[in-house]
């Protein structure tokens, strides 16, 4: 990938495709849609939910009270047929007929690639559908159980749909109840690892990268701690290497530009980066931005450069509340400038840039009508027109220190600032992430030698003239209202 710091858009594909017609497929997506993405500077399009999920589990597992409550909140007039099942409870890696055929997918990828955009698809390493057809054909890849284990924990384990005398584990995150519509992969079984690696090799022909769901769960220590009782009972031995280390290396040996993105938590981001992931979720930044503690955000953005460069910065996705709801309107826009102007992947969710407020459960196949927020749309249009420039995609980023304008004025602590450089080209980003008007001084090297410089505020369309001597000796004076920002470019007079 030529872009060091790409921009990614996630699309809930099974819902989104219907915007082009009731029975539309990927073949019906117009060129104008791809041109729109290109004009906004998107480098990666993640079609979330393209794989064929197993319809047999919908009636049994998708109408539990908590899910029904979420359906009622998101789609007041939902009907039973709107519940199409989780896109993470897949049968196998075949394209969902709602989106078309394999040929449609490949053609869509070609069209994206011709526009300079790469296609990202899901890889769900931890589990398949609880009634996946693979249980009949490849049962050795799943975590087994016996009747005793099942009777002691019938919530985590279940009777195999392929054999009444066999039992399996549901997929799970050890901190939460199991996902009952899934079956757990056994990462201590060599055949399971080989099977999943072969899937990844196949996907390298269909797309340009994968977003790996819950990528920390296959780690040897995590898997052992989650399933220690079963592993000991069946005598499974700990593998010598991590699954991801082997699988990523094998795929990269065939296609070295294939992108691996990890959804991960629990401070395991750095470990997964070392195992070969190109990028890892930065949920910690999301939470710190939501919490509003400016110092914690400042500290986070001063981590090691390699870690920063491989971080995925986001405010929302299909698992999170909508940004405008979670952060509030003004704060969400300030946070958007932050995640859009720091290193790593800048990640957006379909509808975020329209100001959508409703979080749609992934089990629903129909979205509600929402009025678009024209002011938020205009804000993102302007932000994207600024940040799609080469300097933000491949330039050099550096954090800048703010200093007080007077000893008694501590509001400088609310201001976050950094620069982007590419040759003599320079951008200065300053965000007031506090809830009061704040002031600071800011020193940075100026690539011109004029006595007076002109600063063009790209985000607010203002022009400022300032003394080069003052900036060099005291620092640029900045005053910003709560959750307001500057993105400065130095222009020649």
Mean pLDDT: 96
Strand order, biggest sheet? 1-2-5-11-12-13-14-15
Secondary-structure-derived class: alpha/beta
Taken from the alpha-carbon principal axes, the silhouette is elongated
First-last Cα distance: 36 Å
Question: What would you say about this model in short?
Answer:
It contains 19 helices and 24 strands. With 493 residues, it is of the alpha/beta class. The strands form six sheets. An eight-stranded parallel β-barrel has the order 1-2-5-11-12-13-14-15, surrounded by four helices. The protein has a six-stranded antiparallel beta sheet with strand order 16-18-19-24-21-22. The protein has a three-stranded antiparallel beta sheet with strand order 7-9-8.
Helix/strand layout:
Blueprint: E1 7-12, H1 13-16, H2 31-39, E2 44-48, E3 51-53, H3 58-61, H4 65-74, E4 90-95, H5 102-114, E5 118-123, E6 127-129, H6 134-137, E7 144-145, H7 147-152, E8 157-159, E9 167-169, E10 182-184, H8 190-206, E11 209-212, H9 220-234, H10 243-254, E12 259-262, H11 269-274, E13 279-281, H12 283-291, H13 294-300, H14 305-309, E14 311-314, H15 323-326, H16 329-340, E15 345-349, H17 374-387, H18 390-394, E16 396-400, E17 402-403, E18 415-422, E19 425-432, E20 438-442, E21 452-457, E22 462-467, H19 468-473, E23 476-480, E24 485-491
Parallel strand pairs: 1-2, 1-15, 2-5, 5-11, 11-12, 12-13, 13-14, 14-15
Antiparallel strand pairs: 3-4, 6-10, 7-9, 8-9, 16-18, 17-20, 18-19, 19-24, 20-23, 21-22, 21-24
Helix pairs in contact: 8-10, 12-13
């Amino acid at each position: 990938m030529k872009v060091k710091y790409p921009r990614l858009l996630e699309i809930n594909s099974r819902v989104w495709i219907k915007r082009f017609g009731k029975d539309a497929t990927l073949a019906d997506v117009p060129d104008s849609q791809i041109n729109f993405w290109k004009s906004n500077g998107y480098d990666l399009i993640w079609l979330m939910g393209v794989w064929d999920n197993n319809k047999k589990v919908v009636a049994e597992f998708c109408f539990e009270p908590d899910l029904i409550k979420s359906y009622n909140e998101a789609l007041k007039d939902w009907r039973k047929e709107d519940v199409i099942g989780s896109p993470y409870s897949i049968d196998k890696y075949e394209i969902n007929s709602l989106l078309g055929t394999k040929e449609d997918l490949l053609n869509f990828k070609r069209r994206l690639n011709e526009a300079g955009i790469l296609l990202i698809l899901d890889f769900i390493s931890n589990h398949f559908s609880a009634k996946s057809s693979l249980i009949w054909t490849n049962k050795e890849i799943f975590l087994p159980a016996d009747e005793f284990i099942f009777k002691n924990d019938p919530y985590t384990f279940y009777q195999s749909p392929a054999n009444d005398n066999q039992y399996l584990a549901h997929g799970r995150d050890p901190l939460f109840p199991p996902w009952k519509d899934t079956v757990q992969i056994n990462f201590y079984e060599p055949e399971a690892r080989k099977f999943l690696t072969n899937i990844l090799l196949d996907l390298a022909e269909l797309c340009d990268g994968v977003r790996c769901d819950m990528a920390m769960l296959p780690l040897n220590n995590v898997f052992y701690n989650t399933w220690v009782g079963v592993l000991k009972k069946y005598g499974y031995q700990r593998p010598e290497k991590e699954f991801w280390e082997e699988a990523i290396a094998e795929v990269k040996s065939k296609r070295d530009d294939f992108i691996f993105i990890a959804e991960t938590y629990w401070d395991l981001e750095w470990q997964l980066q070392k195992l070969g992931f190109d990028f890892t979720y930065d949920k910690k930044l999301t939470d710190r931005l939501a919490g509003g503690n400016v110092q914690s955000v400042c500290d986070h953005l001063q981590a090691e450069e390699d870690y920063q460069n491989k971080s995925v910065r986001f405010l929302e996705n299909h698992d999170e509340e909508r940004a405008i709801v979670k952060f509030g309107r003004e704060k969400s826009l300030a946070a958007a400038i932050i995640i859009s102007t720091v290193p790593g992947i800048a990640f957006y969710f379909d509808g975020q840039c329209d100001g959508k407020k409703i979080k749609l459960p992934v089990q629903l196949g129909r979205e509600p009508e929402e009025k678009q927020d024209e002011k938020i749309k205009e804000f993102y249009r302007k932000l994207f027109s600024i940040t799609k420039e080469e300097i933000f995609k491949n330039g050099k980023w550096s954090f800048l220190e703010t200093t007080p304008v007077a000893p008694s004025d501590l509001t400088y602590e609310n201001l976050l600032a950094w620069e982007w450089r590419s040759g003599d080209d320079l951008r200065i980003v300053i965000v007031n992430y506090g809830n009061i008007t704040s002031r600071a001084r800011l020193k940075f090297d100026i690539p011109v030698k004029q006595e007076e410089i002109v600063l063009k505020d790209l985000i607010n369309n203002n022009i400022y003239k300032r003394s080069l001597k003052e900036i060099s000796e005291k620092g640029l004076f900045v005053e910003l209202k709560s959750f307001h920002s500057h993105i400065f470019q130095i222009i020649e007079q």
